[in-house]
Amino acid sequence: MAKEFAFMALITCTLLNATPLLAAGNARLDNSQSVPNGATITEDVPLPLAKPEIGALAFLHTDMPPLPLKRPIGIQLPPHPLATGLLDARDFKIYKDAFAAADLRQWNKAQEIAARAKYRLPAKIIDWRYMSAYRNFATFDQIAAFIDSNPDWPLQQTLRRRAEEALSEPISTRRTLDWFSSHTPLTGIGMYRYGEALLASARKEEAVVWIRQAWHIGDLPAALEKQIVTRHSDILRKTDHEQRLDHLLWEREATAAKRMFRYVSDGMKKLAIARISLMRRTGNVDKAVREVPAELRNHPGLVFERTKWRRRKALDEESRELLLDVDESAPRADIWWQERHIQARNLLSKGHITEAYNLASQHGLQDGADFAAAEFLAGWISLRFLGDGEIALQHFIKLYENVSYPISRARGAYWIGRAKASLGDTVMAKYWYDIAARNYTTYYGQMALHELGQRRMPSIPVIAPVKIPVDVAKGEDEQILIVHHLAELGMPKWARPFLLEMAEKAKSEEDYVTVASLAERIGRPDFAIAIAKRASQLGTELTEINWPTPQLAISNPPIEPTLMLAITRQESAFASDAISWAGARGLMQLMPGTARAVSRQLKVSYSEPRLTADPTYNALLGSSYLAGLIEDFNGSYVLAIAAYNAGPSNVRRWLKEWGDPRAGDIDMIDWIEFIPFSETRNYVQRVIENLQVYRERLARDEGSVLRISEDINRGIASH
Does domain 364-447 have CATH number 3.30.70? Predict the structure, then answer.
């Protein structure tokens, strides 16, 4: 790692050409809510998207020549160029205090403070947050009234769940029937209350269906469970109790499952005890399994828990003996796939190719992300390890035909092309590479471009500047006004659901750009990227928004600047205050321990608060850490990127287990697919694709050379 280098960064704090919103005129909202100060808010100034600006930069730790850079590079992280003056001084102070309390989940305090304000829209935002919060104390009538009055507000499903959860105490039969006639029950409580209301209305046949459904799959409080059994013993049969017990155990709800013991046979109880013992890895598992009646020892739930228990105890062969005998028609294919996937990859790493294929191919799934993963794995094993292009082709076609998102479509089409090529059908291979290459911002779309012999990235279309109309007077843009209120009050993080809700309703590219630009305006580039990703999934590419080029002027950076952008986009989406569930912080999502070690190497003072408060400081430490990883792995981008996400010790272990691509033991593309952590596997591919896009964005005048193959294979020659 370079120990000394000049590193200067400037983070600009204003969005280019952003102008404050001006208040004037009159408006009404919600038939009764006046805009503060009697204002109509209009904005006719175009909001141009930030353009990449690049300067002469030094490239360290790369074995490829630097790209031609014409303009200074920029990373632009606007904190919030806020709309100001929307609230009068008194209401502004009231709502600042109210939102501060709400952010601490002090809901009563927040609502009491907000009640003092004259202007009511921000108070409604607090009510919305409160009613959508888990385990709130709002009544059914309060939440239902909010839903009915605000059907376009976000988190409607969450609000409906909260309303049903409030039905632990029943409401009138008529009110219940009215509600569920237009809102299908989503929870066990809702299903049960609807069933009771139907029963009270002499609609017993319908009632029985809903009460049994609630019992079979519902997440029910203990007190309500007891009430249901007491009241409806004539409806609930022995098989219903067994079905509920089985469901709870598949969902790993052991405590709730134990409450069912009194309602099932002794044999089913012993089966459940064995499943729970295996699940919790208690010391009496052998005894518990022996006590299960012979006729229940092949129960799928017990076999699953035994399989998982053996694998966790490193009894891999014994675990696979059970797993290989499981028919693909076994219930809960989604849960079985978790074990199949792990074991298939373990078998593959140990050279048991046919067994690995059998586990992957007999997945029993019908659709969804796991279906796509299973079909890919089966096809990949067939092609790359069994050498069977025909079988591989069947799996890759199934994959392609059952996915819709660009990343998955490109992956399916690329591997269909590879399978066709393996069969000597070069014409159809090219056809499928062409299809994959249409999604040229994706990893496999870029790999397809390489296979087609294209040496430059396609030009990324420039998005025209847009106007953001905020015509409150027409009462049509309440949610845009809400976003501005949240920014003005220092709570832009609450705006994400509103922005995504607007994006879901977008009907054109201009609509998406408008919403994403609004996210940029309030200083949330991460929200803008989320909107652009959603647009891409639905067929509208907003590349300039999806891959922003924030203003970051660097002298002598320790890594290729485009790689820094690629990593940062994947880590935090340029949210400088981001903190992950694991505790990683800031732009480049550094763990405090890692940041401390790097700061010591660089001889700069360490400060944990600065990791989120100072983007420059975070970028210094993060880029230096990544530079060190690149050096440690002999210049390999792929290995360093994987280590940045999963840790260098895991990468070294994987190199030992599957072979070292730098030594020619394995193809690097296959090594990436071997990564056992799906998060890391996805992470590496996303960063590599980001890198190609950023090179094109930052060298637009000439167009950028497509270097995906070189990037994947960096470090191999130097090993």
Answer: no
